[in-house]
Design a protein that fits this description.
There is one protein chain. The chain has one domain (about 10-140). It has helices at about 10-15, 20-30, 55-65, 70-80, 90-105, 110-125, 130-140. It contains seven helices and no strands. By secondary structure, the chain is an all-alpha fold.
C-alpha cells in the first residue's frame, strides 16, 4: 500500500555496506526484533497492517539482492525463520515454498523480488504465535 517504487531506492542506498554474512545477520535480527502485536487492538485479523519496521527488513533484503549475494543462503535462512510460525497455520511455510519456486522460475531481473517479498513475509508473521515451535524445542532438549 506504499507508492512505487518499493523498496525505496534512497533508503536502500543509505544503508551501510555489509558482507554477505553481516547482512544476513542484519536481516535475521530485523525479523526477530519486530515489535510485538498488541492483540487488544486487533478486532479483525483481515484488517491487520504491517508495522513500519517491516520496511527495515525489506530494505536490508533489497540490499542483499543488489549486492548479488548467494540467493540460496538467504532462502535457507528464511526457511529457518518461517519454521517458527504456527500463527498462520502453515501458510508461512507454504508461502516460503512458493517464493522459492517463483524465484527459480522467474527470469532476471524480476526473480530477486521474490526473495525480498519472502523477507517481508517473514518479518510480518514472525513472533505472532510460536507455541508449536517452542513445545518442539522443549521436547528436543528434554530428550
Amino acid at each position: 500500500m506504499e507508492p512505487a517504487p518499493q523498496p525505496d531506492p534512497a533508503s536502500v542506498a543509505a544503508l551501510p555496506h555489509r558482507t554477505q554474512n553481516d547482512l544476513l545477520e542484519a536481516i535475521t535480527q530485523s525479523i526477530y526484533t519486530q515489535p510485538p502485536t498488541d492483540w487488544s487492538k486487533v478486532t479483525n485479523l483481515g484488517l491487520m497492517i504491517a508495522v513500519p519496521e517491516v520496511k527495515d527488513t525489506v530494505n536490508l533484503a533489497q540490499q542483499y539482492v543488489q549486492c548479488g549475494y548467494d540467493p540460496e543462503v538467504l532462502i535457507a535462512r528464511l526457511a529457518d525463520i518461517v519454521c517458527h510460525d504456527n500463527f498462520t497455520e502453515m501458510h508461512a511455510i507454504k508461502h516460503h515454498q512458493a517464493i522459492v519456486e517463483e524465484f527459480h522460475a522467474t527470469r532476471e531481473p524480476w526473480r530477486w523480488m521474490h526473495l525480498v517479498c519472502g523477507a517481508q513475509a517473514s518479518a510480518i508473521s514472525f513472533g505472532k504465535n510460536m507455541t508449536v515451535y517452542e513445545e518442539y524445542l522443549d521436547r528436543l532438549h528434554a530428550a
